[in-house]
């Protein structure tokens, strides 16, 4: 709840926020769709480096999330998914580097067939635009999903669970 707002005003504010977020993501998607492979790979490498550089801050944010979730009675299985370790943070960074090493899917042509007329017909991989992903209790998904969307030239709107809010913000 937003202090001092009634329910109708709160809904209007959320609608405005989501519209603005969508417009920003759409503008980003147009830029990402034109980004070359080297640029996307450098961005992924920079994200991996930032995760490593800020690992202590990320783990601290995650510890706060876990403490709050434990106090709120989150189930043990969900607490386990929520918990990050130094090795888990390194896995996120390595995952982004692995994504960078993958071939760029944008522009790849598959299922190429020659028609009787001599015309060659196939499927070309192109970015979708904006991808929305909702997930919970796994802050590592923030890095994984963002990295895959970036590599494929798509903007992403990520909505992690409220129990991982601090860690998701730190990763982002």
Describe it for me?
The chain is an alpha+beta fold and 172 residues long. It contains seven helices and four strands, in the order αααααβββαβα. The strands form two sheets. The protein has a two-stranded antiparallel ribbon. It has a two-stranded parallel ribbon with strand order 3-4. Helix 2 (37-53) packs antiparallel against helix 5 (86-101) and helix 3 packs antiparallel against helix 7 (165-171). The longest helix has 28 residues, at 7-34. The two termini are 24 Å apart. Mean pLDDT is 92; it is low at 1-8.
Tally of DSSP β-strands: 4
Q: Give helix % range.
A: 55-70%
Tell me the strand order in the biggest sheet.
1-2
Q: In terms of structural class, how would the helical and strand content be classed?
A: alpha+beta
Q: Strand count, sense and closure of the main sheet? A: 2 strands, antiparallel
């Amino acid at each position: 709840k937003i202090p001092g707002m009634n329910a109708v005003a709160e809904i209007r504010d959320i609608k405005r926020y989501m519209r603005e977020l969508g417009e920003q993501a759409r503008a980003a998607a147009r830029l990402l769709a034109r980004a070359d492979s080297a640029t996307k790979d450098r961005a992924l490498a920079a994200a991996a480096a930032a995760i490593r550089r800020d690992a202590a801050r990320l783990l601290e944010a995650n510890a706060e999330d876990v403490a709050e979730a434990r106090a709120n009675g989150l189930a043990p299985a969900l607490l386990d998914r929520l918990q990050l370790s130094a090795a888990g943070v390194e896995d996120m960074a390595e995952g982004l580097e692995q994504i960078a090493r993958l071939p760029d899917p944008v522009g790849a042509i598959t299922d190429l067939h020659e028609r009787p007329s001599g015309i060659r017909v196939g499927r070309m991989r192109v970015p979708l635009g904006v991808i929305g992903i909702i997930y919970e209790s796994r802050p590592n998904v923030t890095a994984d999903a963002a990295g895959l969307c970036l590599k494929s030239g798509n903007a992403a709107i990520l909505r992690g669970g409220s129990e991982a809010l601090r860690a998701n913000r730190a990763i982002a």
